[in-house]
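Run log, item B.
One chain of 462 residues. Sequence copied directly from the ordering sheet:
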Amino acid sequence: MKALRDPQNLLTDGLAAIRTQFQVPQGFAQAVLDAASAAAGRRPGEHVDRTALPFVTLDPASSTDLDQAFTIERAGADLLLRYAIADVAWFVTEGDPLDAEAWKRGTTTYLPDGKASLYPPVLSERAASLLPTGGPRPAVVLSVRVAPDGAVRLDGVERALIQSRAKLAYETARDEDLPDGFADLAMRIAAAEAARGAARVDPPEQEVEVDAAGRFTLRFRPQLLAERRNAALSLAANLAVADALQAAHTGLFRVMPAPAPQAEERLRRTADAFHLAWPAQVPLAVFERGLDPRDPPSAAFLLAVRRAGNGASYVPYRQDVVPWHAAMAATYAHATAPLRRLADRYVLQAVLAIANGRTVPETVIAAFERLPGAMAKAEARDGQIERAVIDLAEVALLAGHEGRAFAATVTDVAENGARIQLHDLPVVARTRAPGVLPGARIRVRLDAADPVQRRLEFTRLD
């Protein structure tokens, strides 16, 4: 982790400018707050009592908007995952100010100095959040059966009152804190991914955070073991939900195309440049899984793979069309983060109806047609904000070092220049370097670090 000296408040002022540029909402209108306060007082009336089950949550230590709680039990050779998801639809009335504002926002937007929540904190961080304090919470409980080979099946869905026993954190959770079967379930899901050729490998994320001393930090952060295992729970639930929706001929699905053949050919050249041995007969998905994201050449290659794809999107059910997510190598849906993603609220309502033999509400079916556009807009905005924040942090990190030379590795090449990763700092930038190939090690000089434009300029020295 690299602390940023920021005596000129480049980050503080710059983050404020980003919020203004991208029109990040500052709080909520009074009508929305009033609707949220009224909703927070709504008492569950369709929920069975499951407070005896030992649910726990597992999230970053600072999180208070907790979408998921879980418990696991063994059922013969299978594992039965009970995955409780915040029952946001119980609190939100279609068409009211709270709902209308959620459609405008689409997602919770995160910045290093705070977030713009999808719903007001009285719901997202209190009444609807699956916190262990404050009494039982309403949830939609997905019962997912996981076979020894990692195959998943949705056994049931119900509205229930649950009581979390503990708020566990990725950074500190121990094996003995977690339900028996947690690691086993993650291994089963990983084995199933390998068997179907999935390529769900996450490279280190470039992140800006605030450290314990209140300073901004910039770093590449690989996922923690507990975080990776926890992701397997969501994956199992989302796969099972997607299968149930597809079988019922309805739903909203997360899809992503595979890299085009030409892109894979470029990736093979990139791997060769990084001196990564990729046998000709080994598929990309298999090769990815064998890489260690803590190894700089491997991390750079994984980032190149992410950029080679066309990105994920949402599509509603269509007759005779199998929605496909190439990275998952499966039909996939988002259902497990309704406090942070608008689409999940509707997917949960649909699967709740299907699992209990009821007709999916017309409002939900209509929403499936509107949601791809709303979610695409929100995700595009969030992606632009994330990149702007990283650009700002990189400028703050390098401000005052104009004229200094740096060692770098070329991670890919495009018409607008070579993308480079500095060796000694968690900085990714572009520079003009005609004729350079991916994997090349070069030296560059920093010519400009402009905090107003969030722009770095480098010149190649060799």
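Observations after the first pass:
- The mean pLDDT is 90.
- DSSP finds twelve helices and 19 strands in the chain.
Flagged for discussion on Thursday.
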